[in-house]
Amino acid sequence: MAKWLGISPLVIGLTVVAMGTSAPEVAASIAAAVRGMGDIAIGNVYGSNIANLALVGGLASLIRPLQVQKKTLLREIPVMILVALFLWPILHNLSVSRPDAIILLAVFAALILMTVYLAKRDAQIDNKSKGTNRDTAFDTRYTVKSILFIIIGLAGLALGADIAVRGAVVIGDRAGLSEAVIGMSIIAVGTSLPELSTCVVAAIKGQHDISIGNLVGSNIFNTLLVVGIAGVVRPFKIGHRLIGTDYWIMILVTVGFTFFVVIFRRTISRIGGIILLFGYITYILYLLLYTTGT
């Protein structure tokens, strides 16, 4: 599909794949907001963002070191960090109102339009430099088949994650975990299953741009689209802990991921993957052992 549209696999990862794999986060956070469980809605976003970079990124890099394009390091990854920081002024008053949510969705729409525009521009520049043109003579049956596979694959990922989340909520509730901890741990892992399966398959096939695009794009989608839609459907309040330590852990992991990309020369090596996984395990132990019931 990326070849047919004349854009890079990275952009497909940042948009189509990221939106599909973020569907469970959208569904879970909307359901939580409707029920007045703001801590689960925002905790899901924090936990999913951390899981994407530390758990999914770590596992994918163990399979095959992830290579990051220079323009991704200079453009999309900084946007991911800025978007995460942008959440602070939205949440500082311990609530997400409809105006707040609309602002998040407006920023999201602007980023998507900019991403598509830059992708088209980059493709045109590459074609001119190489003296090639996009192949528009694709077999219609092949194109329809590709679209159908994307739809079926994303629907299957979302359905599987939803089933996992439903069971996880029951288990977490019976274990006496707080809403915030349930959102940041059990639900976050459940809704990150699509990112995990997608990135593992992409890593096995050597599709680095799909993996990186999915991780970065999903985090941007989670922060802007998930919180935005949930807040528009029903404004909600959150607990004080979610603008304290938990928020800054998410920022630390986001910056740490970027640090690994830089020091390993635009590659998340297997050593980096091990460190990310160790960090994620430590984070989960922190949630389960020291914050239960808070």
Describe the 3D structure:
With 294 residues, the chain is an all-alpha fold. The chain has a single domain (2-121, 139-290), classed as A middle domain of Talin 1 (Up-down Bundle), CATH 1.20.1420. The chain contains twelve helices and four strands, in the order ααααβαβαααααβαβα. It has helices spanning 2-5, 9-21, 23-34, 38-63, 70-91, 98-130, 140-174, 179-191, 193-204, 208-233, 245-263, 270-290; strands at residues 66-67, 95-96, 236-237, 267-268. It has a two-stranded antiparallel sheet. A two-stranded antiparallel sheet has the order 2-3. Helix 3 (23-34) packs parallel to helix 10 and helix 4 (38-63) packs parallel to helix 9 (193-204). The mean pLDDT is 84.
**Total domains:** 1
Order of helices and strands: HHHHEHEHHHHHEHEH
| Secondary structure category | mainly alpha
SS field, number of helical segments: 12
Shape: globular
Largest sheet: 2 strands, antiparallel
- At CATH level 2, the architecture is Up-down Bundle
> Share of helix among residues?
over 70%
> Which range does the strand content fall in?
under 5%
Termini separation comes to 46 Å
Q: Return residue spans where pLDDT drops below 50 for at least 5 consecutive residues.
A: none
So what's the CATH class? Mainly Alpha
Quaternary assembly: single chain
β-strand number: 4
The CATH superfamily turns out to be NCX, central ion-binding region
Alpha-carbon Rg, integer: 19 Å
> What is the CATH topology classification name?
A middle domain of Talin 1
Q: Strand order across the biggest sheet?
A: 1-4
Mean pLDDT over all positions: 84
